[in-house]
Amino acid sequence: MNDIYGWTGKILWIDLSDGAVRTLDTRQYGEAYIGGRGIEARLAWDEMPAGIGAFDEDNLLMVFPGPLTGTTAPFSGRTNMAGHAPQGYPYEWFSRANFGGHWGPELKFAGYDGLVVRGKAEKPVYLWIDDGKVELRDATHLWGKGIEDTQKMLFDELGSQIRALTIGQAGENLSRISVVQTETESAAGQGGYGAVMGAKNLKAIAVRGAGPVRVAHPDLLLRRGKAVLADSRRGCRLARGKLDPEMVKKYGLRYHACTQQCGLECGGGSYYYRDVPGPLTGKKISGHMHCVAPIFPGLPDTFYDWKIGFEAGFELAQISNDYGLNHWDLVFGVLPLVRYWKESGLKPDLDGLAIDMDDPRFWAELFHKIAYREGVGDILAEGGWRAAQQLGLGTDLADDLYQAWGYAGHMDSRGDRANKVMYPFWMTPALQWAVDTRDPMGGSHGYIAGPLGYSPLAHEEGDGPTWEQLLAGAEKVYGTRDAVDPNSDYEGKAEPAAWHCDRGALKDSLTVDDNVFPMIWSFSSPDGLARADGMEGTAFEYHLFTAATGLEMSEAEFDRCGERICNLERALQIRDANRTRKDDEVIVPHFVEQEDFLINPAIGKPMKADADKLLRLMDEFYALRGWDVETGRPTLAKLQELGLGDVAEDLAERKLI
Question: How far apart are the C-alpha atoms of 556 and 538, rounded to whole Å?
Fold first, then answer.
């Protein structure tokens, strides 16, 4: 890495306690850890003391794009955020979040591969990065403002061409479900990192850059990028969406890329609306609805059947954005929990406020209470899981809604009752949930997309891949047809779990979109597998990476980087929280005690997990990872094999492996 391409070569380090500014050389990390999530994990191991909490000054808030960010590589504008996470339960352990927009590319243009923030400022400040100039500025005039007003005020101060990453009132008041956000809805949503910024008295990070991101082979990168983009437009499930013509006419509905370099008109739920009349404020509001936000208006005939209407739901989504509240925890955790309190007679009102899920005024007041920690909002600001435990109200429902680690269910067919997941396809995500520190779906979208996004369950006969094509593809990618067989049982589910754990780490390190990559399947190819310009779909990221960086690395070595990152994260959990297999098994009751909400038509009845079989599946997963089956910890040999000899030595000295 003497001649550096893809990376800029510098990592910016700020200590808020004394205002010190320094830089690190990216080259000591890039080849082994790629960027984003990978370098963050290495810095966490090297620079953070064991066992600290999320609000300690020694907790490093890290914000890193990757080597593809700021280049012409498609779907490459995302940014990873990491540090000890307030939302984590029972440990505030090192974890991560991810966001889109344009902030990450702008940081690269300003000359930095990442940002590390340590310490705590004496009073509210914001960080201003203007190409090579770095400055901490007073933010007392911004403190107390929402995310929208904060960005507008920074535009007035610094110019309209800046990119700003900021927190709202929820982050200032240390809510464990507070987000860090840029633009209208691109947020580091999970983890509670808004509270980490709040604890550091850091209101915002503004950046402007005019420099280039040099790539090793620009013509090759452009050619490969065009081929990948063309294939995704023809064959990706996300390219098959349709806009509601009534909403197009009424509110100017259009597709809106959630990140720089996205080239799809995304049917995955990334939309922009203009001049929607807000019934609460009477104002016309424009903004973004993405991911879980379209559930705010309510989904008829589902678990989320509240009836507040599109206009009120849209306005409430923007209000919660402005406060900086985590949509996922609100929609899949807090709101169903509060409804249950009323329906079960546990708590008929909140500080005298009648609980009425069909009244948007109730929602608005509830969000205000949470953001400002007023009354019962002080407890709900801890997140739905902690609130249920602290109040002793609705813990039975919380067990259903929250899968593990303080995070509401996702792709589990239980807590998450919006995504259509059924047996046996939730078993692979269950393994990923077991060994993660948070909702792991950034690494499991790619798996779930196969059997549920490309199979005959998602399209008319003849309009996409057949089951036989998917089974043959699974054998090629995962080594077993059972990985995506709707008639299978526990067999063949550990292999895709391990594969997607590693690929998820690579995606978050490059950094690329977690819904598009890895591009395994296609609606347009004869055999249902993605490919373009002589590249297999599973290798798209590798070919983009080598064209951008010029590194002479084999595909196997590239894949090994993902495995290295996952094992290093596991080592951090062992060092900091003494994590063992016993911790992982907390997910078992969630699947054993509840039935699927959605029935697999090939089986015809709701299913539960069998505890013994699920535990044996965990045995299989640990063995595939090279981890000790009894403890769930990487072996000394595995860490050494991955080039983590210093990590192995440290854990051995602590008698942890």
Answer: 12
